Amino acid sequence: MVPRPAPPPSDDGSEEEVGTTLLALPDGPIEAGAAPSHTTSYIGGYPAFPPSTASSAPAAVKCGVCQEPIPLLAQVYAPLVDGENDRTVYVWACARAACKRREGSIRAFRASARNEEYVADVAAKRAEAERIAAEERAKARINPFTTKDAPTGGLFGSAQPLFGAAAANPFAAPAPAGEAAPAAAVAAPTEAVAALSIATEPVTLGPPLPAYQPAQYLATIDEYLPLPESDDEDDVDSDDDETPEMKAEWRDEGWERLLPKGVDDIFERFVRRLDSAEDGSTQVLRYDFGAVPLPYSSSSALFKKLFPGAPVRAPSSEEEEVYLADWYKPSFIPPCPRCKGKRVFEVQLVPQLINVLRPSALSTTGAAPVPAPAKNLTEDERKAELTRLAKGEGESEMEWGTIMVFSCEKDCVGVGEEWVGVEWEAVVEA
Ligand SMILES: [Zn+2]
Ligand SMILES: [Zn+2]
Question: Where is the sequence biased in composition, kind Acidic residues (predicted)?
Answer without folding.
Answer: 229-243
